[in-house]
Structure formats: C-alpha cells, structure tokens
Amino acid sequence: MGQSMMGAPQNQGGPSLGQPAPQKKSTTSKINMATIVFSRTLTFEEQDPIIEQVAPIATSAGGKRVLPSKQNGTTILRISPMENMDKFVEELKKKIKFGKVTKVDLETNTIEVEVNK
Q1: CA distance 85 to 2
Q2: What confidence tens digit (pLDDT) does each residue in 22-61 have?
Q3: What is the C-alpha to C-alpha distance for residues 105 and 116, in angstroms, rounded to an integer?
Q4: Which of 17, 22, 40, 113 is deepest in the core (most CB within 10 A)?
C-alpha cells in the first residue's frame, strides 16, 4: 500500500487531482513603524525637546505614537503607525535641529541620527 501501480510513492506533498496547490505565505511584510536610533543615550532633559521636534514631523507622515526607550547605550524612538516613511525621512532631514540623519534603511524603517554635542 502507499504506492501507485507505477511504483511512485503517493501522498508525499504534491496536490491531489482536483485540489489546488498549497499557497506559499509571503515572507515580506510591510513594516508599519519607524525607528530612530540615536548615536548615544539621551538624558531626560535632552529627550523631551527632541520628542517635541519629532512628533509633528511624525504626525504629518501618519505617525500617531512616539515611544522612547533605551537599549545598548543608546536612545531609540519608535513611531507607529508610520504611513509615509519617505515623507517622514525627508521632513526629518530638513527640520531637526538636534542632530543629523546619518543613515536610512527603508527595508527596516530604521533611521540613524548623530546627536549634536
């Protein structure tokens, strides 16, 4: 049992007659969040005015929440949802006064910023 008359094994992964082939799940997903990674850990005194600068830029690009955190000796801002990453990056480059955008990765929606001293 388990083999056809031609000797080939049956029921080993291929679709049966009359059944559709299984669909592959997409491995790419749209990241709906922007992440700003600063060059160093910000103090609370530095962080609040920076968030005040970033928030209206994020809002104009569809961002609704700005969440600060600290990881591995640096401060990170996560903005979500982010509807228009290109617009957010361009506005950030033009309008921030606390530092300079040094790297943008649109695959991961990550922006690196060198903070002024």
Answers
A1: 54
A2: 554 433 336 799 999 999 999 999 999 999 999 999 999 9
A3: 21
A4: 113
